[in-house]
């Protein structure tokens, strides 16, 4: 009985024209590879750079950037601070007396690196950051560059001096 059933199934398959069989893949590439491509274009790595004079405000805004990214389902690749820069500003109080007023300002910078952001969500994310931008904080969104990460490292002067001494000893 099983042989008869097997034979009838084979006869039916050979009688039916080949055009009824579905074509699941193309000649050279399988269809599932095209399903892996995103339908909406993606940006690569994008750096969100914030700069300000007030440290607590800058830290709170960086926390807010993280919260917005999580809400919009944006992947945060990295987040780091760069060393602060000290600015000394002198202002002439009066021309006749020649008195000066000195100000010491610290400029703080933070970077948040996001990756694989869809071209629909990135403008919404930027607009959301612009609308919540605190006073005195500047926002810059730019493509990721590896030189940005190199600015975060402080060179070790003692190590550099030791290396130069070692090179000088080798030359002698």
TrEMBL record:
User: Which InterPro entries does the record match to this protein?
Assistant: Ribosomal_mL48, Ribosomal_uS10_dom, Ribosomal_uS10_dom_sf
Coiled coil region boundaries: none
Note whether Protease occurs among the keywords.
no
**Organism's domain of life?**
Eukaryota
Asked whether the keyword Coiled coil is assigned, the reply is: no
Domain Small ribosomal subunit protein uS10 residue range list: 47-142
Assigned GO CC terms: mitochondrial ribosome; ribonucleoprotein complex
Task: Spell out the Gene3D superfamilies in the cross-references.
Answer: Ribosomal protein S10 domain (3.30.70.600)
> What's the protein here called?
Small ribosomal subunit protein uS10 domain-containing protein
